[in-house]
Amino acid sequence: MQAISHVQNLNSYLIICRSKPRFDKPVRLAVPVRCVYHSDSVQFPNGVGSSRVDWQSSCAILSSKVFSQDQDSGDKSNTSSASDHLAAAVNGHKTSLDLNLVPLDKKNKPQPPAKQPPQKPLTITDLCPAPTHGAQLRVAYQGVPGAYSEAAAGKAYPNCEAIPCDQFEVAFQAVELWIADRAVLPVENSLGGSIHRNYDLLLRHRLHIVGEVQLPVHHCLLALPGVRKEYLTRVISHPQALSQCENTVTKLGLNVTREAVDDTAGAAEYIATNNLRDTAAIASARAAELYGLNVLADGIQDDSSNVTRFVMLARDPIIPRTDRPFKTSIVFAHEEGTSVLFKVLSAFAFRNISLTKIESRPHRNRPIRLVDDANVGTAKHFEYMFYVDFEASMAEVRAQNALAEVQEFTSFLRVLGSYPMDMTPWCPSSGNP
Question: Residue 130: which of 326, 309, 4, 314 has the closest Cα?
Answer without folding.
Answer: 314
